[in-house]
Amino acid sequence: MKYDFDTPVDRRGTNSLKWDVPEGELPMWVADMDFRTAPVVVEALRKRLENGVFGYSVVPAKWYDAYIDWWKRRHAFAMRPEWLIFCTGVVPAITCAVKRLTNVGDNVLVQTPVYDIFFHSIENGGRHVLENRLLYDGEKYEMDFADLEEKLAHPLTTLMILCNPHNPVGKIWSREQLARVGELCKKHHVTVLSDEIHCDLTKPGIGYVPFAAASKTCAEISVTCLAASKAFNLAGLQSAAVVVCEEGLRQKMNRGLNSDEIAEPGCFAVDGVVAALCKGEEWLEELRAYLFANKEFAVSYLKEHCPKLRVVDSEATYLLWIDCSAYTKNTSDFCEWLRREKKLFITEGGQYRGNGASFVRINLACPRAQVAKGLERFAAGLEAF
After folding, report:
1. Is 19 helix (H, G, I), strand (E, B) or coil?
2. 43-279 and 26-37+281-384 share a CATH fold
3. pLDDT value for 265
4. What is the spatial order of strands in the sheet that 84-87 belongs to?
């Protein structure tokens, strides 16, 4: 490999959310990576830093071009510049969409188990979470379309938040599935907000379909949230894009993002992302290969040492979603004990709702030696617990 993903990076003392933990503890929870970002990004930020003046910034044409070229080349989705709105992050965009596209007391549909921040964005604004639970057969997840239509038909359901690819289960939805979701939502007058932040972290050789590219209907009824932050480890730059094809819907989002003061970039937000999307593809390809080799290593290790576990097969994200039901029906106590006794910090699945209570989520975006150390603590903890 041209790029080094094996050498550990000491993140303690850097105000890291992930690593601000007691000495000796190994954090494998929140979804950010322990790798340095692509060298081209570091160089772009260094160049910007050397200017020495950090005043107010604007969004230049090169930012729009970077997103348009990347999504056309890698994901066969032809966007127009006017569809794109800068935003400081995917989560702020989701919260804004909930406030702008629904009313207090409305239902917002989510497909659980799913990223828990969705619930905060919904419930903090006085809306109600409506769960369309994914179907789980002991190996993989699928959409329950009968239940989906029933929930969409509720007169107070006005927004659906889609996770594509899905966090935490790692599912990539097919064009046919997405188009069917679009038709059902249009039938019942429900807008779709598609969170596609993990879309560039798919298994090598496997792509994803943007929701808005699945059909004309999907494009007309949706708001899509994109970012380079997961793929290039840039969450701290606070830079994302909101894509809205339909003009009326776009005007609502544009007004909302600006009213919430989350549509202006910090001085590093543009340069880092443009460098990543314009020059970082080679680095990303090596990263994806490394991440999925980590997954293969982890699955093999757990199969040997914890054969009763079931690891959900996934084609996206660097997260491992593990069914622990053979050991416990509620992993909350187990994860708390594991952190206290074995110094391993992972995420209990109950916070993702749905059937997540008997699952755990482990972040594998770290050097392989660190993955091995974490799995050793996990296996030893599971046996002792």
Report:
1. coil
2. no
3. 98
4. 84-87, 240-243, 222-226, 191-195, 157-163, 107-110, 128-131
According to the model, what pLDDT value does residue 1 have? 87
Say if CB 247 and CB 221 are below 8 A apart.
no
Angle at 79 between CA 212 and CA 152, to 5 degrees: 15
173 DSSP assignment: P
What digits encode the pLDDT tens for the residues 132-155?
999 999 999 999 999 999 999 999
Q: How many CA atoms lie within 13 A of 174 on its CB side?
A: 6
Over residues 7-16, mean pLDDT: 96
Model confidence over 208-233: pLDDT tens digits? Answer: 999 999 999 999 999 999 999 999 99
pLDDT in tens, 312-369: 999 999 999 999 999 999 999 999 999 999 999 999 999 999 999 999 999 999 999 9
45 phi and psi angles, rounded to 5 deg: -70, -35
Please give the Cα distance from 385 to 381 (Å, whole number). Answer: 6
CA distances, 248 to each of 241, 310, 321 (Å): 18, 46, 38
Mapped onto helix, strand or coil, the DSSP state of residue 273 is helix
Question: Which fold does the domain 26-37+281-384 belong to in CATH?
Answer: Aspartate Aminotransferase, domain 1 (3.90.1150)
Contact 186, 27 (CB under 8 A): no
Task: Give the predicted TM-score (pTM) of the model.
Answer: 0.97
Residues 156 and 163: beta-carbon distance below 8 Å: no
- Mean pLDDT computed over every residue of the chain: 98
Give the pLDDT mean for 17-24. Answer: 96
Measured in residues, the chain has a length of: 385
Secondary structure (3-state) at 80: coil
Domain ranges (residues) in the chain: 26-37+281-384, 43-279
372: tokens are: 């091995």
Please calculate the CA angle 294-91-210 and round it to the nearest 5 degrees: 65
Which residues, 6+ apart, have CB-to-CB distance to 164 below 8 Å? 172, 173, 178, 194, 195, 196, 199, 208, 209, 210, 211
* Alpha-helical segments (H) within 19-116: 39-51, 61-75, 90-101
Q: What's the topology of domain 43-279? A: Aspartate Aminotransferase; domain 2 (3.40.640)
Average pLDDT over residues 2-31: 97
